[in-house]
Design goal:
2 domains; Aminoglycoside 3'-phosphotransferase, Chain: A, domain 2; globular
Length: about 375
């Protein structure tokens, strides 16, 4: 998952991993020698951790060259590596094979733009953790740090028409993804193990288990626990159909070229569930940045990714009207709060900030959550 970490005393450059780059280069070269033919003679000429969005899995950019059919070629690649447990990962487990498989299946069954997959490696002995390798795609990402809503970046500085085109094209990605037929059976490997009689019940149970794991390290959050109670009290009577949910469906996880999606990234939160999970996540993941900008006296982008507009565009393209978006938006905000708690704990671990006096101090969207619980937030313009 990719996210901001704008809390008090938090730096704008955050440490993601303690892995040594030169050691990783040697490990990946050795792995490539075993993966490719003997005559390939692979060599890694460049390697670096990404400076883009993202604080969950380790994302390593590298260029590898090898000989194939007598021709020596360079390949720009990306390795997604499960984080070291000592680096305070965002999630309790990282199933890289699951991520690889969902990217592969979505690529086969839809027009969602995805990077080309090369290999999955499940043996942690290779680099210290499971990983997979995919092609590097050229494009730009709306920045998290500092948030694109603050200005002075390609998305904020674009004209309204181009931002509208980007919004529409991103909604189309969700429509295409959710249109994959027979999702519950084809993607049964995405079903969460936590109990519940519907996909949404299992999804929320999975999130609750995640929170309990976070709370064991960071302490309990009254704000988050009120959120779970609120969800129980406002549960939709009809959850609708079950689709493949991207999970982390925000513009910060898309590489864009000319304001159109070139590659959809970060599938570690993929699941089965109602389509509104992704729609509301797309909306709220912009709104959280918009709220931060507003709190700092900046105009931001108030006309961008508005809930009503996104839902209208989705209905026009899919022929299905999203429902209960305030419920799913509040659920999205609750998950963001858990992320804020965990990433603050990581920043303390790396010496980037002081430990908070109370857990709720690090929840950047705490005020927004309170307004959601009171039933006023989603009515605001």
């Amino acid at each position: 998952m990719r996210q901001t970490a704008l809390v008090a005393d938090t730096p704008t450059e955050l440490q993601r991993s303690s892995r040594d780059q030169e050691r990783l280069r040697a490990q990946l070269e050795a792995w490539l020698r075993n993966r490719l033919d003997a005559a390939a003679a692979p060599a890694i000429t460049e390697i670096a951790a990404t400076s883009a969005n993202g604080l969950s899995s380790d994302t390593i950019l590298f260029t590898a060259e090898w000989t194939d059919d007598g021709t020596r070629q360079a390949h720009d690649l990306v390795a997604r590596i499960a984080p070291d447990t000592d680096d305070v990962p965002v999630f309790p487990t990282y199933d890289l094979e699951r991520q690889y498989r969902v990217i592969d299946e979505v690529g086969r069954r839809s027009n969602v733009p995805l990077p080309r997959l090369y290999w999955y490696e499940g043996d942690a002995a290779a680099v210290g953790a499971p990983f997979f390798v995919m092609a590097r795609i050229d494009g730009v990402v709306p920045p998290d740090l500092m948030p694109y809503t603050f200005g002075d970046n390609w998305l904020h500085d674009a004209d309204v028409a181009r931002r509208a085109a980007l919004q529409a094209a991103t909604v189309d990605v969700l429509v295409d993804l959710h249109g994959i037929a027979n999702a519950p059976s084809t993607f049964s490997f995405l079903e969460f193990r936590e109990g519940g009689d519907t996909a949404l019940r299992r999804h929320v149970a999975h999130t609750r288990a995640w929170y309990e794991w976070v709370a064991a390290d960071s302490g309990r959050s009254p704000t988050i626990e009120r959120g779970f109670a609120w969800l129980d009290e406002h549960w939709p009577l009809d959850e609708g159909g079950t689709v493949v949910s991207w999970g982390d469906s925000r513009i910060g996880n898309v590489l864009y070229r000319d304001f159109a999606p070139a590659a959809v990234l970060d599938w570690e939160m993929a699941a089965l569930g109602p389509r509104e999970l992704d729609i509301a996540w797309l909306v709220y993941s912009h709104r959280v940045f918009q709220d931060i900008a507003g709190a700092m006296g900046l105009p931001g982008l108030p006309e961008f990714l508005r809930a009503a507009d996104v839902c209208t565009q989705y209905e026009q393209r899919a022929g299905i009207a999203p429902r209960h978006v305030d419920f799913y938006g509040t659920y999205a905000a609750l998950q963001w709060a858990i992320v804020f708690v965990r990433t603050a704990h990581r920043s303390v671990h790396f010496g980037e900030r002081e430990a908070p006096g109370e857990v709720d101090e690090v929840i950047v969207n705490r005020d927004a959550l309170e307004r959601m619980y009171q039933g006023t937030y989603w009515d605001e313009t």
